[in-house]
Design goal:
6-stranded mixed β-sheet; 270 residues; 10 helices; Rossmann fold; 23% strand
Length: 270
């Protein structure tokens, strides 16, 4: 059996998103303990770990929701410092949180453009600040069609009328529409049934086919091993190792992340 390695040891391609030596403390609790992270162009990187391992803190630190106490984050080789998710969005990093961050009473188009609404051209938009709803609805329909979400017939219907899978699809479509560099998905199938989970996994593959790298945080090992190109195993606030899913079983991954099994010494320092 091959040992866990990073892609950098065998591939000269530079990571599109790279974090080095991240530290984040909450009082006496160290949530990130000198953590490293790499996401390579065009890949799906799964991040797995037990509850309390620091996965969410890591993702928030690289997406602007938290500012790390130490360490650096690089995007396309350039150091970046995000102080809010809006900073990350401006750099082309979109995050779909488990709660989806949607307004149920608003329409699909309104949710897709929340915080970046289009104004009508000329006096009506610049002075009266009227929204260009036809343009937003046309754009939303186009993006939903690109990802095969044909079951949504009315782009004006409130999000609260959609099924769980359709809501997740809208959230992924929103991220794919505006995430030009990186998309981060936090437990995208956690509250979904089998059929809806299958559709979300298909959406993830379709987004990857468009060349956008994806970070997938998930506890669902079958889903992780189905779609991930590499698996970042997170334990005790830091990266333990990186697995090639073709070389390991789901039992191996669970054993690594829970501490029931340790990778070789050479692999721990990836």
């Amino acid at each position: 059996m091959m040992q866990p390695q990073t892609q950098s040891s065998e591939n000269a391609v530079a990571p599109i998103l790279h974090a080095s030596n991240l530290v984040k403390r909450f009082g006496r609790v160290t949530a990130l303990d000198h953590c490293d992270f790499e996401l390579y162009p065009g890949e799906i990187l799964a991040v797995i770990g037990d509850n309390g391992a620091g996965k969410s803190t890591l993702i928030k630190a690289i997406s602007g929701a938290l500012v790390p106490d130490q360490g650096k984050v690089y995007l396309d080789g350039q150091e970046v410092r995000f102080t809010s998710p809006l900073d990350a969005r401006k750099q082309g990093i979109e995050t779909v949180y488990q709660q989806l961050a949607m307004s149920p009473a608003l329409s699909i188009a309104d949710n897709m453009f929340m915080g970046r609404e289009l104004r009508k051209p000329g006096f009506m938009g610049q002075v009266l600040r009227q929204l260009d709803r036809p343009a937003m609805e046309a754009f939303a329909r186009e993006k939903l069609n690109e990802l095969g979400l044909m079951t949504i017939q009315n782009i004006r219907q409130p999000v609260e009328t959609l099924s769980g899978g359709q809501r997740q699809g809208v959230a992924v479509a929103r991220a794919a529409a505006f995430g030009s560099r990186v998309i981060i998905l936090d437990e995208p199938t956690a509250a979904l049934g089998v059929k809806e989970s299958r559709r979300v996994l298909e959406l993830i593959s379709e987004v990857k086919a468009r060349g956008i790298p994806i970070v997938l945080i998930s506890h669902n090992m079958p889903h992780v091993f189905e779609v991930a190109d590499r698996i970042h195993v997170h334990r005790l606030g830091k990266r333990l190792c990186v697995l090639n899913p073709a070389d390991y079983t789901m039992s191996d991954a669970v054993a690594f992340m829970t501490g029931a099994k340790e990778p070789d010494v050479e692999a721990v320092g990836v």
